Structure prediction request, 314 residues.
Amino acid sequence: MFFLPGKYVSTGIEISAGNLKAVNVSRTGRHYIVQDSQNVKIPAQAFKCSFKHLNILDPDLFADCIDQLSIKNKKKRLSIALPDGCCRTVIRRYNELPESEDRVTEMIMWDMANQVKVNDISELRCAWEYGRQKSENGEHVFIIAVLLEKVIEQYESLFQRQDWKIDRILPAGVARYNFYAPDFSKEERLAFLGLFDESISIFIFEQGIPRLYKILRKGLLGDSNASAMNDLDLLLQYCHSELPEKKADRIVIASDKAVSEDVRHFLATSFSADDCQIADENSLMDFSRIKGLNKEINSFSQFSAALGAAKRGG
Prediction:
């Protein structure tokens, strides 16, 4: 979604409770090559994910983690995927939009201020996509990510302290979708499921318009099929409450674990879908230049949020 033309190297970083995962990605045309990757451990006492409170508990210790990054970028610019727990990501529908972009921005900012219960829009930073596309009911549909300004400013100040400039900030769930971003026909209903240790999420698009986004931050709690399907059942119950006609023409699954046939069958049956695919990272990017990376199944998927941030960068 929204890629820039030409050749460039962009850096993407995912910050999570325990890890700072970084990648460098170059692009020529529509060909993406992963040039480098790195995983730096974040001490537990340095970081705690929160929407309302500052995430970095020990700024000096966190700055040391940033300093350990050996990823090279001449421009010292990067895009960051933050934990979904420090963001609010929603789909909003508006019957009408103001004519000017400034008024649209003001409308969305005040709507989100009411949503997250802050007194002034200066306390928020929001980003959104779509909006000019209309649903079949004539509504303007937006995907909006909301963070508190003080939370973002803390991240920005610490990366600037290490001479890095943040170009873009994305929620991790959206960054993962941005990496896998399956091509889809505007005639179909597509369900994209991200099944990861930290969270499980679902995006549903209908005729190219986002219909539903939901994330459970608990993630897949166990390796057993029963545990995985219990977690998924919670997500699907929410889907059914929001979209009673829970059907999909196609399902695409991305995961940092091997997805069993039982889970695939469970999802295909739940959505009455004939086509249920497992996303293949190797078909999306060229990982052949990375040295020393464990190339066992699903190893690249552990960097998917960082890759999605880098793919969005430029």
Notes: The CA atoms of residues 24 and 72 lie 8 Å apart. Residues 225-242 form the longest helix (18 residues).
